[in-house]
Fold:
Amino acid sequence: MRSLLSLVVFLFAALVSAVSTTGNRLLVILDTPKDKEAYTTFFRDLSERGYDITYETPKSDDLKLFKYGERTYDHLVFLPTKIKGLGPNLTPNAIVDFINAGGNILLTMSATHKVPVTLVSVLDQLDVTIPAERNGKVVDHFTYDAVSAAETHDTLVLDAPRNVRPGLKDYFEIPGAFISVPHAIGHTLGSGPLLTPLLRAPPTAYSYNPKEQGDTVEPDELFAAGKQLALVSVFQARNSARVTVVGAAEMLQDKAFDTKVTRQGGKAIFPANKEFITNLAGWTFQELGVLRVNKIEHHLKGDNETNPELYRIKNDVTYSISVSEYAWNDWQPFHLPEGDHLQLEFSMLSPFHRISLKPIHVGEDETVYGTDFVLPDQHGIFNFMVNYKRPFLTNVEEKRTVSVRHMAHDEYPRSYVINGAWPGLTGISATIVGFLSFCIVWMYSQPVKSAAGAKKTQ
Structure:
């Protein structure tokens, strides 16, 4: 009976386990507990997916991101607050340390609230810039919702993201759908390779602060306009921790999921906010785009001994790596996007070989990539290195170190099998044959005898 009960408990725990690969502890920072009522659908969806959600205000004394040097939460969600600073437990350094420790952050803003200076400092370190007043809203007089923003024009109705980064996997594409973006704070991005804009403002949009700017915005007062403004952006650190910046927290609210929007001259339709936010949160909390290396093997071609530590120059070597991709609580075979390559580097200080790996086996939850190649004519300490880093995918950096020795004295090939030695061998052979022929002729040739009885002459 006890074993049966243990089995039931185990199965229940497996069912409610979070789909995130980094954990299920989620901390939500908000002004008051009542604020979460506007996001009921969003948080209910996270709870059903197995997240253990804790709601705290910045003033809470029990709020700590670390305990005994370990993260107390796996994910953070920042909702708009009216507080200028987030207190001693949520300093910029503490939040950056949380990212460095592998934590993921979903940071939302709203033009109805000024962004706390703590989050402004964090965004600066990520090379994300917001208006100096910390609450300028994005306005567009052409792509606004004709019902809810008929006068203010600050609720944008935009096409869903499509082909965000050509040649890469796209987890956010929703063909033919629209996204409602109410009261957004636009931000600009630096040129860092770790930042990717998902949703940009249309060309006719601009950042506007009605409290500090008049009806006419002067060019020198303009923070940014058009495609310079990003509304939703993502950042993936080198340790694969993820930060998502959402310029409009209202995109996550129930009314954004349930209220129809209307473009000028168009029909009223439901926006695809729920699907977009689900994918966005899933990617941020590492439910999507997570790569795992299952196994790495290298060995002499045709040999059964795997992963030896010593090779010889010019050996024929086989290398293989097994990779899986995590998507919504399921490990799947990882398939490269069209035109992309998973490459192996065989390097000492610099690569001697850089080879594209080919899929050699596809299983239920893995794809095995491999190749055969000949080791260089150079002895020393070498690395089998796979360094695969792409936006939207966790980084793969796998290195195996081996020694490559030179040939032993009895391993060099005989001279007669080396084409370059044939002229020398021919000369030596000709010399030997000529010398022996001369010796034979000399030894077996008799001198000419003089005539018998010839008279002496004076």
